[in-house]
Amino acid sequence: MASWSCTEAALPANSLPGPPTATSCWPAPPVPVKAMNRSNRLLRRPGMSALEVFASPTVEPPRRLLVRVAQRGSLLVFLAILLGFAISAPNFLSVGNISNVFAQSAMLGILALGLTCVVIGGGSNVVSGGLDLSLAANLGLCAAVYSSLNNAGFEAWQAIALTLGCGLVVGAFNGLAVVLLRLPPLLATLASMNLIAGLELVLTQNTVLATDSALLDSLASGVWLGVPALASVLLSVAAGLWLLIQHSAFGLRLYA
Fold first, then answer.
1. Domain ranges in the chain?
2. Which of 120, 145, 142 is nearest to 130 (CA)?
3. CA separation for the pair 114, 5 (Å, rounded)
4. Which of 35, 67, 34 is nearest to 48 (CA)?
């Protein structure tokens, strides 16, 4: 839509009856794109981030291309690394090796998937956004709880339920600290990380708790449908989380 500029001018005293002034309007000259890019005041709407501003169609194509590359930089780096390994090791992309990689990274992958929800819901700001520094400490505490319960003679389902409950309590503690006490997630999870690490030391007496069960043996060395069990668990969790985020009301609220 074109903008117009208008001015009012006084009429002579002997003019026809009517208002003492006359209004003249003409189209205003367009604002140069470069000037808009420098200030960003005309491009930015409420709620828009800097990347969204520079990625808008009114921004110069070279800068918009750089922004798109920056947004997908991690994917490009991953593909470059994958290509490098594929060239240097011919069997790297084989089904057996890919399954082995998934199995070895299952634990960290599941933790990363959980943290993805935190980042999506809270934003990527390091101080005030979605961040959980207590993730690794929570993992160690839950492992210690499961080992202790398993060695104490609890049934497998009881040990699993209590271990999951331990993780939920830690997550609820972090959530209450952020929502009710209004602490920055960085500080809240940093404090809980040290607290959880201390609880783990008390529970394990600063020693390694060795344990064994049929469930652990099945996960460590089992094969489900030709795929290592840990890799199957990782892929199942990833697929379930994708469906939850992309095709549910929870996912819509998470992005909102």
1. 100-124+222-255, 131-213
2. 120
3. 55
4. 67
Beta carbons within 10 angstroms of residue 116's beta carbon: 15
Write the DSSP symbol of residue 22: E
pLDDT in tens, 155-209: 988 999 999 999 999 999 998 998 898 888 888 999 999 999 999 999 988 888 8
Contacts of 85 (CB under 8 A, 6+ apart): 92
pLDDT at 56: 52
Taking a C-beta distance cutoff of 8 angstroms, is the pair 197, 136 a contact? Answer: no
The HSE-up count of residue 15 (CA atoms within 13 Å, CB side) is 10
For the chain, where are the E strands, in sequence order?
4-10, 21-27, 223-224, 227-228
Structural contact between residues 112 and 166, judged by C-beta atoms closer than 8 angstroms: no
Report the run of H or E that residue 130 belongs to, with start and end. Answer: none
Contact in structure between 118 and 132 (CB atoms under 8 Å): yes
Cβ-contact 144, 203 below 8 angstroms = yes
* Average pLDDT in the chain: 77
180: number of Cβ within 10 Å: 8
**What was the pLDDT predicted at 147?**
92
Q: How many residues are there in the chain?
A: 256
Please choose, from the candidates 116, 119, 134, the residue with its C-alpha nearest in 3D space to the C-alpha of residue 196.
134
- Helices 185-204 and 156-179 meet at what angle, rounded to 10? 150
